[in-house]
């Protein structure tokens, strides 16, 4: 617990001031009764301070959030458990939970007196209209003395968080997403779900199709052996997200960064449902490499919830770390702002022959450019288009579904070579 703050309330300050005036006046005027009245007021203030001092506040707070990850505009229930670890009962306390502004008004509640070792629980709900990692706590307490002359405040150490995932919108499938890059399981970027082998041999079981008997293995082992069903495979899809401040414009929910995050979340979810093995690569200055790589939808959405504007050089790390993921082909999707000529050429080279590249390039100037001019969106799109990418430039009026539909709606993703 942080240091306690003891202050006089307005009433307490008035009592103390009046007491001093009455004592001084009584002494100067020789009025004993006036002096006694002043002494009484000062004594009440002193007693209140002593009573406040007698009550120790040694409390432990714990929080649970269910669910800990929610979508935009969904609700989560927060339970706050307060336990008294002091050797004496606590007084009645007024409590206020500090919240990030995006979660709404701060909840206030009254904590009744707690015996030593006792605990109590209070709950409230939160909802956010914006994605992100929002903080819960600390819990701020206030305690008044019986006369209302003093107010003591404290903040209980410990906080929590609720992760608000980005919004996901449905996207158009296109005529043949991922066609033109081979059948599943036939090229290196097909990722087996249960291992690298597409076929295994096992002992015969009742009901197995006799046409699946593997005669060489049967002759070698002396037991009937059959070919295992081919394991399912998924095409690889790598999504790159640009979080450079120079590559974005506007602010808040209408800014291009939020458009980028929403679109990336929607693309990842859409491709996962279309039987792709999805990978997300984003900048993460907090990590050792400055890059974060997620290979599940759940992890990717969590990473996107934490995306924020970064410095001008973070995209180079993203492009560098993506080389190992794209070397064997697969669908490559870029969502972000315009790039420098060198970075645009590096990104263009990540698309392997026979694979597909899709670029949704946001135009910061049409979202409300931030300070500092950057490269033009059309130039980046032209560089990528010249290398066989399917590209479109978007502005604040373009929805993620419209942008995706423009690229894949009329043409099968993967037709480029």
Describe the structure in your own words.
The chain has four domains: 46 residues; 107 residues, Immunoglobulins (Immunoglobulin-like, Sandwich); 29 residues, no CATH class; 176 residues, von Willebrand factor, type A domain (Rossmann fold, 3-Layer(aba) Sandwich), CATH 3.40.50. 29% of the residues lie in helices and 28% in strands. The strands form four sheets. Strands 1, 3, 5, 6, 8, 9 and 10 form a seven-stranded mixed beta sheet that branches. Strands 11, 14, 15, 16, 17, 18 and 19 form a seven-stranded mixed beta sheet that branches. Helix 7 links the parallel strand 17 and strand 18. The longest helix is centred in the first third of the chain and has 23 residues. The N terminus and C terminus are likely disordered.
The overall strand count is 19
Query: What is the string of helix and strand elements?
Result: EHHEEEEEEEEEEEHEEHEEHHEHEHEH
Please compute the radius of gyration using only Cα atoms: 33 Å
Oligomer: single chain
Strand content: 25-35%
CATH topology of the largest domain: Rossmann fold
Number of helices: 9
Q: How many separate domains?
A: 4
At the first level of CATH, what is the class of the largest domain? Alpha Beta
Uncertain segments are 1-5, 179-198, 411-417
- Rounded to the nearest angstrom, the distance between the terminal CA atoms is 63 Å
Organism: Phycicoccus avicenniae
Domain DUF58: 201-282
Transmembrane segments: 12-29, 35-52
Pfam families: DUF58
